[in-house]
Structures are given as structure tokens and as C-alpha cells.
Design brief:
The structure holds two protein chains of two kinds. Chain A is of the alpha+beta class. Chain A folds into two domains: about 230 residues, Rossmann fold (3-Layer(aba) Sandwich); about 110 residues, Beta Barrel (OB fold (Dihydrolipoamide Acetyltransferase, E2P)), CATH 2.40.50.140. Chain A is built from eight helices and 20 strands. In chain A, the strands form four sheets. Chain A has a six-stranded mixed β-sheet, sandwiched between helices. The longest helix of chain A is centred in the middle third of the chain and has 18 residues. By secondary structure, chain B is an all-alpha fold. In chain B, about 75% of the residues lie in helices and about 0% in strands. In chain B, strands 1-2 form a two-stranded antiparallel sheet. In chain B, about 25% of the residues are buried. Chains A and B meet through strand 6 and helix 2 of A and helix 9 and helix 10 of B.
């Protein structure tokens, strides 16, 4: 187990800057998830931590030790790759033992560690097989096993579930969480799937264009997003955004209607964006609604119904209604919401705090 | 938007115009093909489509092989069969009649056995050097380096040259008054008769052959190296694997199928060595660089008394060796395909 501190970490490929001065501290035993859209730099950040890429500037400290120039092997980390990266010509046992053999560990100790990992991951019957004889989920377990046997300070996991089908992904997600609980190891996990991030993380790091947008616990990010990007990225279905302008103190004007938002301190007439989560709105008659909608799509999920609609200004708006509602496309409905569930962002997407 | 639609319309009308001749051609084929299909049935169409190729294969491969076998069972100098007499396996007996196969001079056909010895030596040394050089070159060219495309071309260009051109270029460099001796003389060294001294002649025959074919095998190995996922090397790096161990434990085992194909193809080509070596050394000095193919050519065509029977028997024996090597290559390829399909 280890803690990790990144101080103004910059990574450039030629003239292209991928990471723009990342500052981050990860505590011993924490499960931290890097999340963000494709190209945000999350995998590059993980590779920089792993030592597979050199930092262009800045510091990486593992247990206070500067490791910028320390090789990947000597950092005491282990990585689980998106493609699993199992050695195809070696058996599962050889895959697990390979790294330990490199460090000239006694054979008895290697056998003991391989057996322990195999027992923990339920892959004992597979030890003699080659990777091509395994299913996706089994390969995933072997890849994790290869990391476990090394007893690393930090586990680095690069989108480890993205090659699995949806059902298996849910199973493996739960197993990873259980593994973290039993090992109490520091884990850094990269994903573009916000559901994985929400379900696994102690803390989530949201990245965009090589910069950290926000760091916090899953619920902090869900309840108090720092900006419109984080608000839209965390939560499924994503948050609705409605353009409007600040009216008199403590109220906003949207689509010609004035909505009270107590505590809002914005200059009258300033452009603002309201953010409301689909779960935080209530359906009502169009004439009584804060926002009237025309239904464009109905998704019946059994326990709840997801309505996709359009406002009079053509903005899309999603509502998650409990139960199995009967709606038809083109139907007019209205939505209303409590002021405390509304997030307000300025023209640049920064959150406007309310007292 | 209108402009885009118009451009698309023009493009589509141009392509339909270009397609017209094909439409006409296919329409013209329709009637005869319908007739053939009615005549042979749908099941017989496969044979109909294969027939032209089988005809060419028969005329240029099967019939010559049969004639070759027939010649090897006859004696005399006549070209046509009616002037030749049946001798059974006598030609093979005289080729294989040897007191000690390791000493060509004890054999009835000492030139044949000398060429077998030369070919065996050539095959072992040339294939070893060629495969190792191709592997080394592929490993270097697979690395991130400046002007990688240029260097890859440099190694591949000799493959594009005809073997006769290769032989002539190197003869011009290595002959008594050639480029190499001119350079050596300039630096104060003595002139060496590169092609007239038997060990040097064999050395240069091997060197030139390696130079000429290196690019082809490098390309196969390079393709194999590039098919190894980069993730595996990164995993090995995380596992603390040293460079040499990475090569032995990751690269080499994963490159093994390609390496095996390269070895077998190189073996087949080395056994067939003729053109560039013949142009370069003419088999000399004496018979020190005469290979089996040259022996067959000279026995059957170059000697005043053309011994077509003996040459045919020698070519049949060489053919058996090549068939065995080809079968090995096919077996390796099939095993590899099965493995990949698993």
C-alpha cells in the first residue's frame, strides 16, 4: 500500500500538451477513479504514474519518494491493461509467475503466491490453460491475478472492464469492489463509464482536455458539481440544461416564466443555465408546469419510465418518472421541480453558488 | 448543399458511364454462360471455371514433370523420345553409385556429388546467416527511429532486382579489376582474386545471395514483429523484464511461427540456388561453387554430349527434396492457421 502525490504534472507529445499541470494526492488504501470523455488524458495520466510514459515536467512522489526517473518495474506498481495483455504463449500459471521469476524470487514463494491469487480469483482450475482457451471474464481475472501476485503498492487499472459484455461487467465490478475491500490496497482505475466510477470509487477525478475539473466523492460530484461539464458527465440519464436569465434577486426567467430560486445572487439580466437532474423533476399538467414539454421518445425500463421531450425553445429535456407511465409521442406534459434541486451555472459553465 | 448534390450527381453519372462497358461485357457473357450452365449443371460450374487454369497448369507443369520422369528412365543424346532407349533406373543408379558419399571423388558421378556437397554447405551457411541477419534487421527496423521508411526501403530494394542483374553488379565489384580491388589498392592493400579463389568464391556466392534476399525475409519478420501487441511489452516492462529476457521470453516465442516459415522458404530457395551464383562465379573456380541446379543445366544443356536422362534423374531427386520441404512448409502453415483459428 502506498500514497501518491502528483505535483504540476505535465505531459507533452511533441508540440501537443496532453496533461496541463495535474495536482492530485491519493491516500493509502483509497480507490480513486479517473473518469472523463475520450481524449481527456485519463489513460495518459495513468501511464505517467505507471512509468510507461515520462513526465515532461512536474513531480510524481510515491510515499514521498520522487519517482520521475524510476523505471516502471522499480516503482512497485502493477497494472491491469484494457486488453488484459496476457502473454498468449504462456499458461495462466506462467502468466502469473512471470513477473515474480523476473525478480528471482524463490520458486516456493512464487508457487505460494500464485496459489493464493488463483484461490482468491477462483481460477485454480484454469492454471494450466492458455489465454486463448479462456473467456473474457476469466482473462480479466488472470490479468488481475497477475497484478495481485506482485503485491504492489498501487494497482493501476486501465479500463479493465470495457471489453466485457454488460452483464459480466456488472459482476466483475462487484468483484473488484470486494477485492479492494479485502486487499485494502490503493487502486487507481481509469474509465469513461460514469456508472463504474460512481459505484467503485472512494473519490472520483473528473478530467477534461488534460485538466482536472473536479475531485470528490461520488455523491459530492453528483450533488455539488463544480461546473456544467461535471454536472453533465456524472449521473445517468445526464442532467438537463435550460438556458435562461437572472430576473429580480432570487428568481430566474426561463421561456417567459419566472421561477423563484431563493439565495441566487446573479446580476439581473445575466445569462444563466439551469441544471436539473431527470430524477429531480415531477410531471404535472402543462399549464401548471415550470417547463412545458412535448414528448419525443418514451423508454419503459419497468421500474421507471424515461421520457425524452423538447421545450418550446427546442431544448431537449429528460424526465425519469417512477413506475410504468403511459405516454405517447407528441403528447404535451409539464415538469416542475423544487428550487433546492436546481443547479445554476454562469455563461462559462461555472456553478453559481446560492446562499 | 445544392452544389454538393450536383457534384454527387455528376460523379454518379460519370461512374455509370464508366460502368457501361462492363455491363455490355456481362450482358454478352450471359447467353454462353447460360448455355454452359444448362449443359453442365450448377454443380459442374466449378469444374468449368477451373478448367482454363488446370489446362495451363497441365501444359506447363504436369506434362513437363511426366516428360522429365520419362527422360530419366531413358538413355542417349536424342531430344525426341523415338531416338532414346529405355534404361530403367540406370540413371539413378549411376547418380547414387558412390563408395563414400562424403568424398565426391569416390562417386561415379563425382560432379553431381560435388554439387550436392556445395549445395548442402551453401544451404546450411546461407540460411543460417540469412535468417539471423533478417531477424536482426527486422528488430532494428521495428524500433522507433528517424527515417524508418527510408531504411526499410534500403533493405528491400535488392529484392526488386533480377538475379542476373544482382550477379552482374557484384561481378563488376568483385572481378580482378573490379571496384573492391580498386578501393583496396587505393588504400595500399594487395589485390585479391575474390572470384578465383575457392573459399572466397563460396563466401561471395553466399554473401551476394544473402544481400539479394535479405529484404524479403526481413519484411516477413517485420510483419510478425508488428503483429505482437505493444501492450505485451508494456506488461513485461511492468513485470520488470530485462531487454534480453523480453526478447527470449516474449518476442522470440511470438515470432516463432513467422521464423519457421522464413527458415523453410529460405531453405527451399537456397536448394534452388542458380542464377545469381552462376552469373557471379560460373560455378568456379573448378567446381567449387557449382550447385545442383547448375549441374543439371550443364549436364542436360551445356555439354557437347547432352545427357538429358542423367540431368532429368538429378532434377527428379532434387524435386523430391523440394517437395519434402514444401510439405513441411504447408504443414507448418496449416498448424499455424489452426492455432490462430482456435
Amino acid at each position: 500500500m502506498s500514497d501518491l502525490v502528483l505535483n504540476q504534472v505535465v505531459k507533452e507529445f511533441g508540440a501537443v500538451r496532453i496533461l496541463h499541470g495535474i495536482d492530485l494526492a491519493i491516500r493509502d488504501g483509497e480507490f480513486v477513479v479517473f473518469v472523463g470523455p475520450s481524449g481527456c488524458g485519463k489513460s495518459t495520466l495513468l501511464r505517467v504514474i505507471a512509468g510507461l510514459e515520462r513526465v515532461s515536467s512536474g513531480e510524481i512522489r510515491l510515499d514521498s519518494r520522487l519517482v520521475n526517473d524510476v523505471s516502471a518495474a522499480d516503482r512497485g506498481l502493477a497494472m491491469v491493461f484494457q486488453s488484459y495483455a496476457l502473454y498468449p504463449h504462456m499458461s495462466v500459471r506462467q502468466n502469473l509467475a512471470f513477473g515474480l521469476e523476473n525478480s528471482r524470487m524463490p520458486k516456493a514463494e512464487i508457487d505460494k503466491r500464485v496459489a493464493e491469487a488463483a484461490r482468491m480469483l477462483l481460477i485454480e482450475p484454469l492454471l494450466h490453460r492458455k489465454p486463448r482457451q479462456l473467456s473474457g471474464g476469466q482473462r480479466q481475472r488472470v490479468a488481475i491475478g497477475r497484478a495481485i501476485v506482485r503485491r504492489p503498492g498501487i494497482f493501476l487499472l486501465d479500463e479493465p472492464l470495457s471489453n466485457l459484455d454488460a452483464e459480466l461487467r456488472v459482476v466483475m465490478r462487484a468483484e473488484l469492489a470486494a477485492l479492494h475491500n479485502s486487499l485494502k490496497a490503493t487502486m487507481i482505475y481509469v474509465t469513461h463509464d460514469q456508472t463504474e466510477a460512481m459505484t467503485l470509487a472512494d473519490r472520483i477525478v473528473v478530467l477534461k482536455d488534460g485538466r482536472i475539473e473536479q475531485v470528490g466523492t461520488p455523491l459530492e460530484l453528483y450533488n455539488q458539481p463544480a461546473n456544467r461539464f461535471v454536472a453533465g458527465f456524472i449521473g445517468s440519464p445526464r442532467m438537463n440544461f435550460i438556458e435562461g436569465e437572472a430576473a429580480v434577486a432570487g428568481a430566474v426567467s426561463i421561456n417567459g416564466r419566472t421561477l423563484p430560486l431563493p439565495g441566487l445572487a446573479a446580476q439581473t439580466g445575466a445569462s444563466i443555465v439551469l441544471g436539473v437532474r431527470p430524477h429531480a423533476v415531477t410531471l404535472t399538467a402543462p399549464e401548471d408546469a415550470a417547463i412545458p414539454l412535448e414528448v419525443t421518445l418514451v423508454e419503459q425500463l419497468g421500474a421507471e419510465t424515461v421520457l425524452h421531450g423538447r421545450t418550446v425553445k427546442g431544448e431537449s429535456f429528460t424526465v425519469t418518472a417512477p413506475g410504468q407511465g403511459r405516454f405517447s409521442i407528441g403528447e404535451r406534459v409539464g415538469v416542475t421541480f423544487a428550487p433546492e434541486h436546481v443547479h445554476v451555472f454562469d455563461g462559462e459553465g461555472r456553478v453559481i453558488s446560492r446562499s | 448543399m445544392a452544389l454538393v448534390t450536383e457534384e454527387r450527381g455528376q460523379a454518379s453519372s460519370l461512374s455509370s458511364l464508366l460502368a457501361l462497358p462492363f455491363h455490355w461485357f456481362m450482358a454478352a457473357l450471359n447467353a454462353p454462360m447460360s448455355f454452359v450452365q444448362r449443359r453442365f449443371g450448377i454443380g459442374g460450374m466449378g469444374v468449368v471455371f477451373l478448367a482454363p487454369n488446370m489446362l495451363i497448369f497441365g501444359v506447363f507443369v504436369l506434362i513437363p514433370v511426366a516428360i522429365n520422369v520419362a527422360y530419366s528412365l531413358t538413355g542417349g543424346t536424342a531430344i525426341f523420345m523415338d531416338g532414346r532407349h529405355f534404361v530403367g533406373l540406370d540413371q539413378y543408379r549411376s547418380l547414387l553409385n558412390c563408395e563414400n558419399y562424403a568424398i565426391p571423388s569416390t562417386c561415379q558421378e563425382d560432379a553431381f556429388w560435388q554439387s550436392v556437397h556445395n549445395t548442402a554447405f551453401f544451404v546450411v551457411v546461407q540460411v543460417t546467416v540469412l535468417v539471423l541477419a533478417a531477424l536482426g534487421t527486422a528488430l532494428v527496423l521495428n524500433r522507433e527511429m528517424r527515417s524508418r521508411g527510408f531504411w526499410r526501403s534500403v533493405f528491400f530494394f535488392p529484392v526488386l532486382l533480377s538475379p542476373v542483374v544482382v550477379g552482374l553488379i557484384w561481378k563488376w565489384i568483385l572481378q580482378r579489376d573490379g571496384l573492391l580491388n580498386a578501393i583496396l589498392l587505393d588504400f595500399g592493400f594487395e589485390r585479391t582474386l575474390w572470384l578465383a579463389e575457392r573459399h572466397w568464391a563460396m563466401f561471395w556466392a553466399i554473401f551476394v545471395s544473402v544481400w539479394a534476399h535479405l529484404g524479403f525475409y526481413t519484411l516477413i519478420l517485420l510483419a510478425g514483429l508488428q503483429a505482437i501487441p505493444r501492450d505485451l511489452y508494456e506488461a513485461a516492462m511492468m513485470d520488470g523484464t530485462g531487454r534480453l529476457r523480453t526478447f527470449w521470453r516474449i518476442t522470440l516465442p511470438l515470432l516463432w511461427p513467422n521464423l519457421l516459415v522464413v527458415v523453410i522458404l529460405a531453405l527451399i530457395r537456397a536448394v534452388q540456388i542458380f542464377d545469381e551464383a552462376f552469373v557471379l562465379t560460373g560455378g568456379g573456380p573448378g567446381t567449387s561453387t557449382m550447385f545442383i541446379t547448375q549441374y543439371i543445366y550443364e549436364t542436360g544443356f551445356a555439354h557437347v554430349l547432352r545427357n538429358l536422362g542423367l540431368a532429368s534423374a538429378a532434377s527428379i531427386l532434387m524435386g523430391i527434396v523440394l517437395v519434402a520441404l514444401t510439405a513441411l512448409q504447408l504443414a507448418v502453415s496449416n498448424r499455424r492457421a489452426k492455432k490462430e483459428g482456435a
